[in-house]
């Protein structure tokens, strides 16, 4: 039996649509696997009642198939589905790392990323790697068709998860098909600033780099109360605020001592609209861990 904990992740981080991702120190999925003649899946934990156990419909089955390694798989969900926190990616990442260990396949962490991305193809129609890469490798990641560049970073974060459901598939339909050159220039500047911030462990630069005028405004409209929550987080000291992944989670970067106040400001603003919300005081963290 091999056990792996794989973390939630936040993709995009504003200016890095489909490219940037960060592992979060919490929450996480825990997966136990045993090699078997055929793949079977049991689901437990947060939102598991909404996730199919059929290997043809569960990302875990897609990853086992991609690695050609059938297994009995038990998944304890810490990351609820359709959250914007890489729920499907956490399971996919954990299964890829666990199967590699159980079958002694000897793949590097970077080599496992495309296999785990097959799980994302199953649920969103595209094998984007921006969530599975940080969940497998940890830290901040830049995922491009050429591969993944990983940086260990230390940035305090607050993530708010309202009781709203937005599927990645739906949130991808509202992404604009084109952008003005002036918007692209702004986005490149923001993205470069964010990368510099990750290298320097500088929450102010990371926050500046989280602004985005292309994809985020369209996505924000899907989240009831987004503008008010963002404003409240900034007033409480956040250096930057954006939609996490495809939403509805909202992520804020900040100095360590501001996390508590920002979490409570975001929770209050959602509460004013009668939306139940959970806040995680977290940080850029480690990738999948074997036990
Ligand atoms: N093991 C799994 N864990 C979570 N979701 C799964 C799993 N297998 C299949 N799914 C399906 O994937 C969908 C959730 O994935 P989706 O990409 O929409 O959300 P997310 O991973 O939380 O978001 P994001 O990628 O924006 O961070 C749900 O329809 C769910 O049923
Ligand atoms: N980059 C993806 C992440 C969600 O899986 C998106 O924002 O649609």
Automatic annotation (TrEMBL):
The residues covered by the GHMP kinase N-terminal domain are: 60-139
* Subcellular compartments: Cytoplasm
Q: Which residues form the GHMP kinase C-terminal domain?
A: 198-268
Please give a single GO biological process term from the UniProt record: threonine biosynthetic process
Q: Pathway it belongs to? A: Amino-acid biosynthesis; L-threonine biosynthesis; L-threonine from L-aspartate: step 4/5
Any GO molecular function: ATP binding
The reply on keyword Amino-acid biosynthesis is yes
Report the sequence similarity comment from the record.
Belongs to the GHMP kinase family. Homoserine kinase subfamily.
Name the Enzyme Commission number(s) assigned to this protein: 2.7.1.39
Keywords assigned = Amino-acid biosynthesis, ATP-binding, Cytoplasm, Kinase, Nucleotide-binding, Threonine biosynthesis, Transferase
Question: Which SUPFAM superfamilies has this protein been placed in?
Answer: GHMP Kinase, C-terminal domain (SSF55060), Ribosomal protein S5 domain 2-like (SSF54211)
Q: Which domain of life is it from?
A: Archaea
What's this protein's name?
Answer: Homoserine kinase
Q: Which HAMAP family would you find in this protein's record?
A: Homoser_kinase
Pfam families, per the entry: GHMP_kinases_C, GHMP_kinases_N
Annotated ATP binding lies at 80-90
Function, in words: Catalyzes the ATP-dependent phosphorylation of L-homoserine to L-homoserine phosphate.
Q: Which reaction does it catalyse?
A: L-homoserine + ATP = O-phospho-L-homoserine + ADP + H(+)
* The organism of origin for this protein: Halalkalicoccus tibetensis
Gene Ontology cellular component list: cytoplasm
């Amino acid at each position: 039996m091999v056990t792996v904990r794989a973390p939630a992740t936040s993709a995009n981080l504003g200016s890095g649509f489909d490219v940037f991702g960060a592992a979060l120190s919490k929450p996480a999925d825990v997966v136990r696997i045993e090699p078997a003649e055929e793949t079977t899946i049991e689901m437990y934990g947060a939102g598991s009642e909404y996730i199919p156990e059929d290997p043809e419909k569960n990302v875990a089955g897609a990853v086992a198939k991609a690695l050609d390694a059938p297994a009995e798989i038990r998944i304890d969900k810490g990351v609820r589905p359709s959250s914007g926190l890489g729920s499907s990616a956490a399971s996919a990442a954990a299964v890829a790392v666990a199967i590699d260990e159980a079958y002694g396949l000897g793949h590097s962490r970077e080599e496992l990323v495309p296999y785990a991305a097959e799980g994302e193809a199953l649920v969103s129609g595209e094998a984007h790697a921006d969530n599975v890469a940080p969940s497998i490798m940890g830290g901040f990641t830049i995922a491009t068709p050429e591969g993944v560049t990983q940086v260990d970073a230390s940035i305090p974060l607050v993530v708010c998860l309202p009781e709203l459901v937005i599927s990645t598939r739906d949130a991808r339909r509202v992404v604009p098909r084109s952008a003005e050159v002036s918007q692209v220039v702004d986005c490149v500047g923001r993205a470069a600033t964010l990368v510099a911030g990750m290298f320097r462990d500088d929450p102010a630069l990371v926050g500046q780099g989280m602004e985005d005028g292309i994809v985020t405004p369209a996505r924000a409209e899907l989240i009831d109360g987004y503008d008010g929550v963002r404003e409240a987080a900034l007033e409480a000291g956040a250096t930057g605020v954006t939609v996490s992944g495809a939403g509805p989670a909202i992520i804020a970067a900040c100095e360590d001592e501001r996390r508590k106040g920002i979490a409570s400001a975001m929770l209050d603003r959602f509460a004013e609209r009668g939306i139940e919300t959970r806040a995680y005081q977290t940080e850029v963290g480690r990738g999948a861990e074997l036990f």
